[in-house]
Amino acid sequence: MDGTYLLLVIFILHCVLFFLDLIFKSCCHLPYIYFMQGTGLEVSFLRLQWHTTALNRVFQQMSNWRPQMLAVWFSVGVIVSLLLMPVAAFLVLRGLFGQGPHKEGSPDQPSGLVLEPVVPGVNLPLSQVGNYMAALAIGGVLHEFGHALAAGREGVSVLGCRAHLILVLPVAAVEISTQRLNSLATWRRLRILCAGVWHNVVLSLLALLILYALSHSHLYRLDEGVAVTKVDPNSGVAGPAGLSYADHVTGVNYCTVHDKSSFRSCLHRIAKQPQIDFCVPSSILKEKRDIDKSCCSPDLSNHLCFLSENDSRSDLLLIVSHDYEVLLNSMFDYEGLI
After folding, report:
1. N or C: which end of the chain has fewer CB within 10 A?
2. Where do the Peptidase M50 domain residues begin and end (predicted)?
3. What is the number of domains present in the chain?
């Protein structure tokens, strides 16, 4: 499902749930009220909340398993978190006063290590909203699990757990006794406060390890394939329906592309062939008489429109990973593709 439609569906579901919740509560529908209280669910506008105390005993039992090993584990987390604080501060300041966020599809990617906010639709494709939600959910759950486990290890009671869904943003939280937390020694308190960050660091390292391992698997090929590195904003293939940065080119005029060599070979072979004509039914043209000679409606952002030119240049057909076909002039600088 396209990211825009996914956001629209989630928004409609939020509105429907909020409307039904408002109706049932205003009518004092007792079965519904008892159900919401028993399950810990709460509905508000564009937000769903779930609260439970069923996991309190689980956290306490897990914290009693190998307590000395857990103490060492969370002590290492305190040291790592303190060492990363200057790095995090530097990245935040660099992100604020350095280069601004890069838009989705921009070829000018930041060099080096940069902390950049991720905004769906701006520098994150809307098609990746599902992956974005899953990553936030996994990271948030492990973060709060670290706090709960460390709190149980230090004898601080876990009062409950909460999960929120704010439109598409999943948020998790644990409730612990602040009075007991403030009575602990500084180092023991730091074990609890740094446990969440420490678990996120370990999760990031594990993800990097998996990514590195995948690059050495039999299913991964290095230095193969062709991708778009830059698109001229004035080009006919630019725009929402056109080519974007990092698009994967799989074929040219049904000539399969595997690498740079096969891509050049396809271009040279097609350049020697007669010009290809792409025809449309005359009925479509009759319906579009009131539109400019591009034959495309200006409100169709998912179509690529071209003007007819009287020159000797031939047209090419590129098949990209977005599952659409686009026309590309044969004079396209294929050296800009890798």
Report:
1. N
2. 133-231
3. 2
Cα dihedral: 295, 299, 300, 303 (round 10): 50
Assigned domain for 143 exists: yes
Residue 84, amino acid:
L
Distances (CA, A) of 195 to 12, 71, 75, 174: 37, 11, 9, 12
Task: Report pLDDT digits (tens) over 169-186.
Answer: 899 999 998 899 999 999
| Neighbouring-strand partners of residue 251 | 256, 319
In a domain, 131, yes or no: yes
DSSP string, 89-120: HHHHHHHHHS--PPPTT-S-PPPS-------B
- Which residue's structure tokens are 């593709």? 337
Handedness of CA 48, 51, 55, 59 (dihedral sign): positive
Range 264-289 burial, b when 16+ CB lie within 10 A, else e:
eebbeebeeeeeeeeeeeeeeeeeee
Dig out the tokens for 80 from the structure. Answer: 């790592």
- Per-residue model confidence (pLDDT) at position 113: 60
Helices 195-214 & 186-193, crossing angle to 10 degrees? 40
Helix H or strand E segment including 220: none
* Number of residues that this document lists for the chain: 338
3 state DSSP class of 322: coil
Whether residue 52 is found in the same domain as residue 151: yes
Domain stops at, among 183, 214, 245: 214
pTM: 0.64
Q: For residue 107, give every residue at least 6 positions away whose Cβ sits within 8 Å of its Cβ, in sequence order, or none.
A: 229, 230, 231, 245
Residues 254 and 175 reside in one and the same domain: no
